[in-house]
């Protein structure tokens, strides 16, 4: 099973969308809200400055790419 981490922030519609999508598809993920300074610093180590920032098996995804997400996680679109 692939490791999925989503860096989010409050009041972020794209963050809510991707979390709902993965939940609906039965994909387990860890959410890290960047209101927490530790998580914000972790995200910035990847030169990521916008949420949602997604890590799948430590491979960064700087924007929501549904095709890539579905392919990488073996999700039937």
TrEMBL record:
Record SUPFAM superfamilies = Thioredoxin-like
Q: What is this protein called?
A: Glutaredoxin
Please name the CDD domains in this protein's record. Answer: NrdH (cd02976)
UniProt domain Glutaredoxin: residue ranges: 4-59
Note the superkingdom of the native organism: Bacteria
């Amino acid at each position: 099973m692939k490791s999925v981490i989503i860096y989010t922030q409050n009041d972020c519609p794209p963050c809510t969308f991707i979390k709902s999508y993965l939940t609906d598809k039965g994909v387990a993920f860890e959410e890290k809200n960047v209101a927490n300074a530790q998580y914000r610093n972790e995200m910035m180590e990847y030169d990521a400055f916008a949420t949602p920032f997604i890590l799948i098996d430590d491979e960064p995804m700087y924007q929501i790419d549904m095709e890539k997400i579905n392919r990488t996680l073996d999700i039937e679109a």
